[in-house]
Design a protein that fits this description.
Layout lengths: L1 H27 L14 H6 L4 H11 L3 E5 L6 E5 L2 H10 L7 H7 L12 H15 L2 H29 L3 E2 H18 L14 H16 L4 H10 L3 H30 L7 H12 L4 H38 L2 H17 L12 H4 L3 H13 L5 E5 L4 E2 L5 E2 L4 E5 H4 L3 H4 L39 H18 E5 L20 E6 L7
Parallel strand pairs: 2-7
Antiparallel strand pairs: 1-2, 3-9, 4-7, 5-6, 8-9
Helix pairs in contact: 7-8, 7-19, 8-13, 9-11, 10-11, 11-13, 13-16, 13-19
Family: Belongs to the cytochrome P450 family.
Cofactor: heme
Protein name: Cytochrome P450
Length: 516
């Protein structure tokens, strides 16, 4: 009994000390500076603000001149959080070799295998060169533009027309993700999964990708030893990850096997998808031994899953935020319609019929490009990037980096910094991207970080803009989109800037736009 009382007294004193320490820290800290707790470090603040993680990081960076050093308590891990353009240029360009993705990144993103997102050094250079060669070809680019146009015309517009005619609400975020999933699967695998078909069926492969993204986000803030134990035990979110991986691996393996069989039966492949191109390219360089084929299949699995993740979710998320922000800025929407009107008129689109635009017709539209860029500045599809520090270094901001430190670059926060974009940084102003001569204004990638920067700049940037323009123009010209009043729009816990509650909208067919 005496020992129990002694324990209670010690525990009470310890609690009082922690509370007193917290009181002192909060008195010293500013409103934007998180408290560093004993044992937990800054992890407590991260978990306490997990529901508003991106805005929490933005508040901290705004109060810390775009930089903040965080510590993960007893783990000894140091995180340097930044949205400083000078630091971004140093990390991603000037001293690129010293800031690899790193082993920890590869472990967090283990579902991507040895693909281009996880790779460093020579492996990364080789994969990037091969992917760039295949994606840069005129044939593939035409295939990508045609696939986006066809999916918008034959699947998305009819679904929206039905919603308009029946007065039904629809989740535009879900529709865009389904569209980009179908298009990306077509481009990568040569397979249309039918995710956007009538009835909006549940596609196990698509659901698995959603579960993967949610788990990958949590792995960034849960200590590695904890989530690895959860994965081994298959509990919590890691249980969903284990099931999702099996679903993804099964789909990809079956698709690769079918494509190989088709190519053997036909003797060649007339398909323009990337999987067929990779198989043809590898078959030119390797023998037909079973061991080599097994190794190649692993490479194909990793490569295609990486490309699918890059293409599907980022573009679908960008389209969702674009129509959300357009609904709050009718002035911008009207200017976009006026820009589209001459093209639509040439296509006979002023008589009330449905209009779909070709990529070549939208290529030189300055205001459309500016509006999409402005949306991506405020709502980048990938809100933060993760880097490791290979050797001690000093950043342009004066902060000292130690080998083994982790760096998080917040593109979401960068777009909201007055010191980077001016006092109107939180406003949606496509005009900031247009010069006085009416031409597009160039912004360096270390400032407009939505497509990464330096040697790792996104290979699919131009393809992404083609898809964004094609779908956005088709939807906004044919339909007036209104967000349902009272619908809460906020980011989801994911490494991609998805919408937590979707985007509930009503749509109406537009009247003739001849007046534009």
């Amino acid at each position: 009994m005496d020992m129990l009382l002694c324990f209670v007294e010690i525990f009470s004193i310890l609690c009082c000390c922690i509370i007193y320490y917290y009181h002192l820290q909060t008195k010293k800290a500013s409103a934007s500076e998180p408290t560093e707790w004993p044992v937990l470090g800054h992890l407590f603040g991260m978990f306490a603000n997990i529901h508003r993680f991106h805005d929490w990081a933005t508040d901290i960076l705004a109060g810390g001149w775009h930089n903040f050093e965080a510590r993960a308590g007893l783990t000894g891990i140091r995180f340097f959080i930044t949205c400083d353009p000078s630091n971004v240029r140093h990390i991603f360009t000037s001293n690129f070799a010293n800031y690899p993705k790193g082993d920890e990144y590869a472990e967090i993103f283990d579902v991507l295998g040895n693909g281009i997102f996880n790779a460093d050094g020579e492996s990364w250079r080789s994969q990037r060169a091969k992917a760039q060669m295949l994606m840069a070809g005129a044939r593939f680019r035409a295939f990508a533009a045609r696939s986006s146009r066809d999916k918008a015309e034959k699947s998305l517009l009819p679904l929206l027309a039905h919603a308009a005619d029946t007065g039904a609400r629809c989740d535009l975020h879900d529709l865009f993700l389904r569209l980009t999933f179908d298009v990306t699967c077509t481009l990568v695998f040569g397979v249309d999964t039918g995710c956007l078909s009538a009835g909006l069926p549940v596609i196990p492969f698509a659901r698995a990708m959603d579960d993967v993204l949610e788990t990958l986000f949590l792995r960034h803030i849960i200590p590695m030893s904890c989530w690895k134990l959860m994965y081994r035990l298959e509990v919590g979110t890691e249980r969903k990850m284990a099931v999702a991986r099996r679903t993804i691996d099964r789909f990809v393996a079956e698709t690769i096997a079918k494509r190989r069989a088709d190519m053997i039966r036909q003797g060649t492949s007339n398909s323009d998808d990337l999987l067929s191109s990779f198989i043809s390219h590898d078959d030119d360089d390797t023998s037909n031994g079973n061991d080599v084929v097994d190794e190649t299949d692993e490479f194909l699995r990793d490569t295609t899953v990486n490309l699918l993740l890059a293409g599907r979710d980022t573009t679908g998320a960008a389209l969702s935020w674009f129509f959300y922000i357009l609904s709050k800025n009718p002035r911008v929407e009207q200017k976009l319609l006026e820009e589209l009107a001459p093209i639509a008129a040439q296509k006979g689109g002023d008589g009330g019929g449905m209009v779909i635009f070709d990529a070549s017709e939208l290529k030189n539209l300055v205001y459309l490009q500016a509006a999409l860029s402005e949306c991506l500045r405020l709502y980048p599809s990938v809100p933060f990037e993760h880097k490791a520090v290979a050797a001690d270094d000093v950043l342009p901001s004066g902060h000292e980096m130690k080998a083994g430190d982790k760096v998080l670059v917040f593109s979401y926060s960068m777009g909201r910094m007055e010191g980077v974009w001016g006092k109107d940084c939180t406003e949606f102003l496509p005009e900031r991207w247009i010069t006085s001569e009416g031409k597009l204004r160039y912004e360096p990638s270390y400032k407009f970080f939505s497509f990464n920067a330096g040697p790792r700049t996104c290979l699919g940037k131009e393809l992404a803009f083609v898809q964004l323009k094609t779908v956005a123009a088709a939807v906004m010209w044919n339909f007036a989109v209104e967000v349902v009043p009272g619908h809460a729009v906020e980011p989801k816990l994911s490494i991609i800037l998805h919408m937590k509650n979707g985007l509930a909208v009503t749509v109406k067919r537009r009247a003739t736009m001849a007046s534009c």
